[in-house]
Amino acid sequence: MLKRVAFLIACLVCMVAGNVLAAEKVLINGIDANYPPFAYVDQSGKPSGFDVDAVDWIAAKMGFKVKHMPVDWDGIIPNLLAKKIDFICSGMTITKERAEKVNFTAPYWEVKNVFVTKKDSALKAEEIYGKNVTVGMQAGTSEAKWMAEEKEKQGWKFTIKYYDSAPMAIEDLVNGRIEVAGMNYPPARDAEKKKPVKIIGTFGEVEEFGAAVRKEDKDLLDKLNKGFEMLRADPYWEQLIAKHLNK
Q1: Is the entire prediction scored with pTM above 0.85?
Q2: Does the domain formed by 24-108+210-245 have CATH 3.30.1330.60?
């Protein structure tokens, strides 16, 4: 009898332990390590930014643990599909092409695309299309795809040079290796505050950011949608905007 009781207790302990481990599963958010102010790795090596803080808040409210993992932007969706990460919340533009592979949450932010030049440049935005200048853009982004497609259609004269990140394009711009950089407004504004560069105009269409999950992960999609809905209704949302976007 005692042996049977001991066996039952051991089974219960295993079941409880299994449930605890399942409850404590850590979800991996894939981020761009160099896309300030939405996602980046700070000087101490810690993932930071608007999206990082937003996801941390949502995870706490929705009852799951999260870790932010830097991933090369060109390969971030393949990493998601290969289950190396669980979702992407890192300033990702919702596009039809991406939506064929992943599901997106409802949009949580809108951005415009802008041209950036050195502060002392006399170049105007409308002149770029007809000049033999080099425009630096981050590879794998929706704005770079749009620019390449429109350049082909319109016969624009400039050359596109691709970079691993928007800040890398800014560095080459500052050092005189390119004449223009094209990117979303948030990293451009971040660069404008830190480097001798300026925003001179817009291009393309307004874009919407959403978090991406695998097609089959409907429960996670529901959690993120609910989490963003709660966050946007909470005073912390305005605090995040003030902290990261309105500096």
Answers
A1: no
A2: no
